[in-house]
């Protein structure tokens, strides 16, 4: 049986009790389901922390979404749609391994400056399901994953817990990756600014009108849970004031600049464009 690092605290997962962002508007549409009796205690803790109803078995009538504890993982299911599979954090699958093997000259790594420097400290301020942050950790960086939406953070913690059971990556994951369930703007403007990271990585929810970003049905589910990043402009301001070297913003290949600000540099790939803003501290 896979045991998530949630809900017990560990040095990789910081979860203040007040962090229930994004749940207020969806509480009546979301429930916790447990399909494996061996995870019932864990499910009860999750339901208590997120203030969500707990249902046993497949009973879910009247709910649009469910956080489901299966035998092997925690996953988010859209109960009103059956056109796609469950959403979960997968941090050591073939694609992640391929991206790490791609080295430091691929677009994301170059945007962060890894082709020129050794291990950097990177704050992934909009971690989501954590895949980009884990790639950066696999390339040698120390990465702090910030996620303010409690549901997404729970999925992320579960993904990290499962990945840390893999012998090939457990040691460096333990050394280089930390999860904090916090609001990124507040974090970067808090006491953490006394010991800032060199790089801040931002991957805000793309504007709703962007058809490319909505091509994946999973994105619609995550948007329903997390909402849009309407404070993206403030997030960029905070990042520019926090990072000692640069801020990297992930955008669609033909997308507009975040908050209309032209970057200092760009690193483009087939699926995404990385806009780079050098900070005054790093000039």
* DSSP helix fraction: 25-40%
Proportion of strand residues: 15-25%
List how many beta strands DSSP finds.
12
Can you tell me the residue ranges where pLDDT is under 50 for at least 5 consecutive residues?
A: 1-12, 14-25, 210-215
Largest sheet: 8 strands, mixed
CA-CA gap between termini? 50 Å
Q: Over the alpha carbons, how many angstroms does the gyration radius reach?
A: 18 Å
Q: Helix and strand string, N-terminal first?
A: EEHEEEHHEHEHHEHEHHEEE
Mean pLDDT over the full residue set: 85
> What is the number of helical segments per DSSP (H or I, 4+ residues)?
9
Shape verdict? globular
Summarize the structure.
This protein is an alpha/beta fold and 283 residues long.
Please describe what this structure looks like.
- The protein is α/β, with parallel strands linked by helices and 283 residues long.
- Helices cover 28% and strands 19% of the residues.
- The strands form two sheets. An eight-stranded mixed beta sheet has the order 1-8-7-6-9-10-12-11, sandwiched between helices. Strands 3-2-4-5 form a four-stranded mixed beta sheet, with helices on one face.
- The chain starts with 12 loop residues before the first strand and ends in a 5-residue tail after the last strand.
């Amino acid at each position: 049986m896979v045991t998530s690092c949630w809900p017990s605290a560990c040095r990789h997962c910081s979860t203040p009790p007040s962090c229930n962002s994004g749940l207020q508007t969806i509480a009546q549409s979301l429930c916790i389901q447990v399909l494996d009796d061996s995870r019932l205690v864990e499910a009860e803790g999750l339901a208590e922390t997120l203030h969500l109803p707990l249902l046993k078995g497949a009973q879910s009538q009247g709910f649009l979404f469910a956080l489901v504890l299966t035998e092997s993982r925690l996953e988010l299911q859209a109960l009103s749609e059956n056109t796609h599979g469950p959403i979960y954090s997968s941090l050591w699958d073939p694609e992640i391994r391929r991206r790490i093997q791609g080295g430091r000259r691929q677009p994301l790594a170059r945007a962060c400056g890894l082709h020129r420097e050794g291990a950097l400290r990177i704050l992934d301020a909009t971690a989501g399901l954590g895949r980009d942050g884990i790639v950066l950790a696999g390339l040698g960086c120390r990465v702090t994953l910030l996620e303010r939406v409690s549901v997404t953070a729970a999925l992320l913690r579960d993904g990290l817990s499962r990945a840390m059971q893999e012998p090939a990556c457990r040691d460096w994951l333990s050394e280089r990756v930390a999860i904090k369930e916090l609001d990124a703007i507040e974090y970067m403007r808090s006491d953490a600014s006394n010991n800032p990271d060199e790089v801040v990585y931002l991957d805000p929810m793309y504007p709703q009108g962007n058809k490319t970003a909505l091509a994946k049905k999973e994105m619609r589910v995550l948007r329903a849970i997390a909402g849009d990043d309407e404070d993206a402009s403030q997030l960029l301001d905070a990042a520019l004031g926090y990072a000692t070297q640069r801020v990297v913003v992930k955008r669609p290949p033909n997308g507009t600049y975040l908050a209309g600000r032209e970057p200092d540099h760009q690193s483009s790939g087939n699926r995404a464009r990385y806009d780079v803003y050098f900070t005054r501290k790093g000039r």
